[in-house]
Write a structure and sequence with these properties.
Low-confidence stretches: none
Radius of gyration: 14 Å
Order of helices and strands: EHEEHEEH
Shape: globular
Strand order of the largest sheet: 2-3-1-4-5
Mean pLDDT: 83
Structural class: alpha+beta
Largest sheet: 5 strands, antiparallel
Helix content: 25-40%
């Protein structure tokens, strides 16, 4: 058992041209892919903390959002994976550090993705 605490990364597809169902399909596809990575400790769709009454469309999850938990050492690998597959799609990312700090970033191109990868790494290294 390691004493290194994992970093939580919330990934959201926020393409305005997609409806909630299409965003959810992208999130589910990504979830399947990242669960196959050895570097990922936990990966799951993100539950909706305030689902609308009677809404069963997505079973209480936030459409287009998922959470991945990774060790700080593997964060760079996860960002590389995301950049390779989704670098030109609008994404919203929230990085939650082990000390409770959060960093919210958005990207819609490979160049922006590289920049936010650097920002996230610097953010985590400040712990």
């Amino acid at each position: 058992m390691t004493d290194v605490l994992n970093v939580k990364l919330i990934i959201g597809f926020n393409d305005p041209d997609l409806d909630d169902e299409e965003k959810n399909e992208q999130a589910q596809k990504l979830l399947q892919e990242i669960r196959e990575l050895d570097e990922i400790e936990v990966a799951e769709l993100l539950p909706d903390p305030n689902p609308p009454a009677g809404n069963k469309a997505f079973g209480g999850i936030l459409a287009g959002f998922l959470m991945a938990e990774v060790s700080p050492a593997n964060l760079k690998k996860l960002f590389g994976f995301l950049s390779d597959r989704f670098g030109n799609k609008p994404m919203k990312l929230k990085v939650k550090a082990t000390d409770g700090r959060e960093l919210e970033i958005e990207a819609s191109s490979k160049e922006e993705f590289e920049y936010i990868k650097q920002q996230a790494e610097e953010f985590i290294n400040k712990q």
